[in-house]
Amino acid sequence: MLNLIQADIYRVLHSTTIKILLTMTTVFSFILFGGMYLVENGTINQDLTNIIFLASDMNMMTLIGAVLAIHLVSAEFESRNMHHLITSGFSRIHIVISKMVAYCLLFTLVISPYFIGGVITILFNLDVNANTQLAGIMLMLQEHPAISTTHALLLLAVIALVYIAQLSTTVLFAFMFKKASLVIPLFYVISMTSGQISLYKEHLATIADMLRITPFASDFILIGVATTNDTLLAATVTSFLYIIAITALACLYFRKRDIQ
């Protein structure tokens, strides 16, 4: 299985897709952090905050994560490489697990510019402000002067894990649907719906409680300075268990799927 993971990572790292995705996150993270810094210092008009929000990690993760899953999994079906792996003697369970591990590692690489920018902001104690609805890294960074550097870095790590767990859903979708074009809109709907539920959780208490067993829970989406250690622990445990559950579901589905 280690050979499968290494092969997937090698193939993706040498592809044009990963270069484009990494370039996108680098450029947009620069726009995000640079824009937040300039808004806080009054250098640019606050009316431009909508553009900054479009470059935020919350907005970019859905697209980038889904495209990566399509490239890593769906493309293997289209090129018949999945068929070759099975006929070569690799078990379907090992294939799914290797894809999930490779995906988590590659996704971490792709989103790293956002977290590198976050670390720089924290270490240099830069004042940033998006002046708009906040979530993800933006929320934590705007509040970071109120906490220690160590705690801020811990929050970043948990946010990254929550993102990885959320986007692992796209790997399941890539194994489920023959049409890769379905992966992006389906996950986008899930992401947007969970985001809206987090904003109106008082009025949607039942649904919000159901989401608490997933990384889409409102408390996990809105991690910030006020987040308690118990919530951080819950987010960490829930994210790991969710990835395991999604991997198990992908294994069950893939075992029954016909490979042509």
Automatic annotation (TrEMBL):
Coiled coil: none annotated. The chain crosses the membrane at residues 20-39, 51-73, 93-116, 153-176, 182-200, 232-254. The keyword Membrane applies. The keyword Methyltransferase does not apply. Keywords: Membrane, Transmembrane, Transmembrane helix. It comes from the Bacteria. This is Uncharacterized protein. It comes from Caryophanon tenue. The lineage of its organism: Bacteria, Bacillati, Bacillota, Bacilli, Bacillales.
